[in-house]
Amino acid sequence: VTANKVGLGDQVSAFTEGGLNAAGKKVVVIGGGDTAMDCVRTAVRQGATAVTCLYRRNRANMPGSQREVANAEEEGVEFLWQAAPEAFHGDDVVTGVRAVKMHLGMPDATGRQSPEPIPGSSFVLDCDLAIKALGFDPEDLPTLFGEPELKVSRWGTVRVDMKTMMTSVDGVFAAGDIVRGASLVVWAIRDGRDAAAQIETYLKQKAMPAADGSAARVAAE
User: Fold this and answer.
1) Which of 188, 181, 162, 58 is nearest to 69 (CA)?
2) Rg (CA), the chain
């Protein structure tokens, strides 16, 4: 963070004012992806006195890079597996994170085991800085687009047929993060190309003469 700020000349107010400066602080990072790994390792470099990563599943089910995890452990980061946040302690500033231990239950729709809280297992982690590295909160996409028939997943992303990239609305296609959730730009590029090819196929099929000799109508919307 510091190197980028100085090199680019940017003013990052949250860093300048101390909100994202981990120097001399006990830091808790919540999440298990690559962003969480960036946060814990940056906190170490900023001079945090202790850095803990809280993740609700086990190491095998962590979405982030295992190499990043190993590197973070080498740098002194502590990982608390199968633990999820319940509440933040403190008034004007955070003083701790109340968490609960989890066990992995039945697999969900993606095939991953669903984390479930263990009753009576709550505990408190003291901290001066808590960072949520949990991705993005989804919009209410059917309302946003004014299309109540648009189907979304349990995570709020648009559902598509991955073979055609078409949504539940005929003639409407989607690709990238709006389908996958927060992901890599290379996947967005790949999905965009696939969607473009499928759109071309769709339009060609719509333009083919129907049995009565008339061309099938292509929706202008």
Assistant:
1) 58
2) 23
Q: Name the residue among 75, 79, 80 with its Cα closest to residue 41.
A: 75
Backbone angles phi, psi at 210, to 5 degrees: -80, 175
The whole-model pTM stands at 0.61
Q: What does the alpha-carbon distance between residue 176 and residue 45 come to, in Å, rounded to a whole number?
A: 32
pLDDT at 135 over 80: no
Tell me, letter by letter, the H, E, C secondary structure of 10-39: CCCHHHHCCCCCCCCCEEEEECCCHHHHHH
pLDDT, tens only, 94-104:
999 999 999 99
Q: Comparing C-alpha atoms, which of 43, 120, 119 is closest to residue 78?
A: 43
Helix and strand numbers, DSSP H then E, in the chain: 7, 8
- Could you give the domains of the chain? 2-132 (3.50.50.60), 141-207 (3.50.50.60)
Give dist(CA 15, CA 1) in Å, integer. 8
42: closest CA among 81, 77, 7, 11? 77
Determine the Cα–Cα distance for residues 182 and 166; give it in Å rounded to an integer.
20
| Alpha helix positions (H), 48-184 | 66-74, 141-144, 177-180
DSSP of 58-94, one letter per residue? -GGG--S-HHHHHHHHHTT-EEE-SEEEEEEE-SSS-
